[in-house]
Amino acid sequence: MKWEVVIGLEVHTQLTTQSKIFSGASTAFGAAPNTQTAVVDIALPGALPVMNKAAVDKAIQFGLAIGAKINQKSVFARKNYFYPDLPKGYQISQFELPVVEGGAITINVDGVEKVINLTRAHLEEDAGKSVHEDFHGMSGIDLNRAGTPLLEIVSEPEMRSWQEAVAYAKALYSLVTWIGICDGNMQEGSFRCDVNVSVRPEGQQEFGTRREIKNLNSFKFMEQAIKYEVNWQIGEIEEGRKIQQATILFDPDTGETRMMRSKEDAHDYRYFPDPDLPPLVIADEWIERVKATLPELPVAMQARFQSQYGIPAYDATTLTSSKEMAAFFEAVVAAGADAKLASNWIMGDVSATLNREEKTIAESPVSAEALALLIKRVMDNTINNKTAKDVLKKMWESGDSADTIIERDGLKQETDTGAIEAIVDAVLAANPKAIEEYRSGKEKALNALVGQVMKGSGGKANPGMALELLKKKVG
Amino acid sequence: MSLSLEDVSRIARLSRIAVTADELAATQNQLNRILHLIDEMRAVDTTGIEPMAHAQDVFLRLRDDAATAPDRRAAFQAVAPAVENGLYLVPKVIE
Questions:
Q1: Are A7 and A195 in contact (CB under 8 A)?
Q2: Which portions of chain B are predicted below pLDDT 50?
């Protein structure tokens, strides 16, 4: 039987605010345990929450960026459950009226575009952390994270493969970091994904029973977890067993998923509007004000790159994968480099070297201006492309400019015809067979000799000029 | 709408409230009376009236985003039953 996979995502993005969503405690990561807590965060009786305006700003930014509806009135609700890292006994979240509804994100898998619709995005507070080392048979609780603002972003179950799910998560990641509402630090838990997975026979209308994989904090783990889970579910059904709704965890060490809790003891959260917080009202002026501060979005920038710089769609998409890379590209072009060459260099040698050194483009030791100068030296034929690659390597290591390295190492392309002519003569003398082939109509026979001329010149000959000379001498 | 005895035990368990077998029937009776009152209110025709999310007609107050709270860990932990290495200690919880 052919099976269809159905996936929906709930992503918790930690918002980049200075202080918590309902208190004035700091949200900075890595502080000593419990040093960043206010009375609200540790739930001292009588302490009341006061909403952080910046958290709402960021939710509005997100809503605008995905073309969603910003609810003029939204309501905070209590989600009730007992766990020691949640001292109030409930999490303040949104239930019936979230701040953002609808919207969509376009993903691209192997060149095929697909629109993934979003259900909603709501504001809520994060819980604290349990430390399960052994404290004389007890657990330790750190409430520094309690009350950190989160935007939970919920998609419709519209993804049909792990590739689509990962593409969606990556697109969402790049969007929230692009507009700056999330720092994107996945190791620190700033972007955590819950993935709902079910399978059904192809052609069946109703969804199968889903299981929810909790708290995936890497795209690689997401891929592994979904692959494993889909196989497991299909195996169960094919052996005649039924899938039970459950919450599961992915173990990166074994590559397997395992049950956290089944539906029987799943929480019944008994949501109700929080009497401590009257409705959040967002006027049109507020939305307009946020709209004015929104940066140019990736999709708009891709279109502009294609029309303004005449680069292909693929290049435009790659260059706008992060705001930093897009800015770097524009800086290289602004410094005088040809746009397509700039694109090739950034997507090619520069990205490859950054990847190898696990650096971001912001950390590149070669500045946009320095790269532009190197590209200009290729454009004005001072050096050929192959030499330029070596020069970039040296720029990377030494921090010297392209001109300094070209001068110091004597890499300037040989444009003295006389000097190249001598090398061409020598190469031709050693390859009578190639000459014969060329004369009998095999045009390409001489191309093979260009490499030998280049080698003879120590890489300094201009390949175009070498070919011209070869043809002239033989013809 | 009314609750069964099983409903009452379940709600008590979710709320971490110990309701003994003797108290169960009385609790059921009290809760059902509240639900009955809600039923009466529900019978009122509210067509065209926007539901209220809060008893008062007020909007959410907002504050500027500034980390202003000082570190008061020592004071907070002075009243905690057990602390170690800056952590609050609680009975072991593993899901």
A1: yes
A2: none
